[in-house]
Amino acid sequence: MDWTVVLGAGGASALILAGKEVVVWMLNRKAQKNDKMEAKNDNFCDLKATMADGFEELKRIYGTQAQEIAAMKEVIVKLDSQSKVQLNALQAQLGNTIKFLCGKYIKRGNITIEELSDLEHLYEVYHLCGGNGAITELVCLCRKLKVVGTVPEG
To answer: Cβ(112)–Cβ(150) under 8 Å?
Structure first.
């Protein structure tokens, strides 16, 4: 038997087996790449579905918040209207009180320091409520009255 034939046949056989192993390795590598690509696609699809669900939840929350904000705006408008009515009522009441007191002091012809201080405080609040005009003139007249220590009896 010729050793060259045996060695040649063994070498060819080894070469064929090595070629087979390379082909199997390449096929496995391609399959692994395909598996990775499919996993990426699956992850992308999962991410896309999660994001779509998240956006739907945000739309629902936004809709709810928009309704709540609209309801709050209605309450604020109502409270603002009520506040303006109350401010006008306070201004009118202060104006009437100041008129009454000024009339009393002017008729009497004098005013005490305490009465003048109270009158100034009432006028200051009346003025902050937006009042002015004839009431201001009455308060100015009271400021010109003779200041006395106590209210005379009678």
So the answer is: yes
